[in-house]
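Narrative summary of target 7.
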Amino acid sequence: MNFGTITVRCRGYKLTQFINALHSNAVECREQYTKYEEFYTSIAYIDYKKFKGIADKYSIEMFIEKRTGLLPKILKYRKRYGVLLGLIIALSFCFYVSNTIMLIEVKGNINITKGAILAAAENLGIEKGKNVQKINYSQTERLLMAEISELSWVNIQHTGNRVLISVAEVKEAPIIDNITPCNIVATKDAVITKVTVRNGQLFGTVNRPVRKGQVVISGIYYTRNKDKTRVHASGEIIGRYSEEIEFKQYFQEKQTAYGEVDTKKKLDFFGIKIPLDLPFKSEKVYNVTVEDTPFQIFGKNLPISIVKTNYEEVYKTQKIYSLEEANSLLDRQVLNYEYNYYKDTEILDKKVDLIVTDEYLQLKVIYKLEGNIGQEMPILVK
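Modeled conformation, tokenized:
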């Protein structure tokens, strides 16, 4: 990036050799021309030292005609300490405001309230007044998903002093509206123990078996005039059925573990990256995230920012379980499964068969269950 230019006038006996030397040394000369045996050109401020060195080598006299750009203006005030102090205070204030969380927004939530997400985020260290640079965002994303089980995805980004928490919720099976014509079909091979019909025609009876996919309450029936009518069937089908589930727990498992986070910072000053730390060198495996925090003044981003690169170590560990530990983990799998899948179903009986091998424990569980086996299925009209 060009921070300023200097317009110079040069004269001397070796003017041609001097111009050739400028070109061979990659000194960019703009708007160059010769007039009355004097050479005029504009050069970048950062090339001035090299330009002057070549001029001295060929005994060329130099006269600065004009200075333009940001850097010359700044240098003009270098001895005005009040201005310099004010600039330092202003930059310090901008740095503080840009690195302190002032606003937290939540996006993508539907059923989970914004307050619940903000409360969980606050417990994990994301709250107003905290330094945005001291938060491990990738780790916080994982912890927030663990904190709120209804979340299927979390992404946390920050721009200046604003933090945006984007989420996606676990999607449930779509519910058919109460207008769309549909049947109620059995979701299991079962024996019906109770039927409640609110709308539609019953095709099943109590104590009779039904097959999975069989229509139990039909949304299609005929009137006395033999006219076909389609309605939204509704009701409840309770049935008894069996399910066999297998659970397995290995004695040795590979697990992903996360180590320490090494952070390297750079100052992005008008596109020029200035390292603030020693370069990062490692042959290990890392999760790499980059955060760009621009300086702000009056809510506007400045072309100056702190670029933070986080290197989070990722490695595999071999976890070895004893027989008792593996058995405990297997029991936990069973409890979790029953909680998630049989929460609204009555477990009438279960038979457990434990198999022990050199590599794993396996549990075969045969459940006898009673619960709602009806599901709405839209009627496709040809």
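The chain has five domains: 4-75, 103-169, 182-240+374-378, 246-252+320-369, 255-314.
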